[in-house]
Known about the structure:
Elements: H1 2-40, E1 50-53, E2 58-60, E3 70-75, H2 80-91, E4 100-105, H3 110-120, E5 129-133, H4 137-141, E6 149-153, E7 159-164, H5 169-172
Amino acid sequence: MARKLLIVSILLLLTSVSFAQKKKKDREKKGQTEANSTYNEIGATLPPLNFYRRDGISLTEKDLNANAPLIIMLFNPTCEHCEQQAKIFQQHLSWFKDTELLLMAAEHMGPYLGYFVSNTGSDKYPSLQIGLDSSNFIKNTFRYESLPQINVYDKQRKLVKVFTGITPIDSLKPYIQ
């Protein structure tokens, strides 16, 4: 009898600990979602944007064409899928003549940016802006699903679409002017 009582007590204890941990994770996730939901949901306004290009020039959203849609690809310079997406953009750069196109990596990825540019040949395309985030843009907009993540903003700088993973150019076509 005492043995059964001990087993039941242990099971109840494990269940309550597990439940408490799940509640804590849910609260943390909810807090993270609430913090990020301001900028990563459809209809959200573009958050403050500041990035450094490879040449060291710092740009903000004010330096981009305000009368054009904006497409921002969040990427990791060591990600093969991101390299593939950059090459897709390069093959269709003429489609983006009236759309701002920016590829942005996290600031701590600076040492790997040269590797990315070398692998993709991006330095041959001056209209393809590649930079490092210096304003927490990625932290505010990344959905933690997969890379690359492509955020599409309209002329009013409202988020209209988010793509994750390699995205065919045909999927982007409706958002390109």
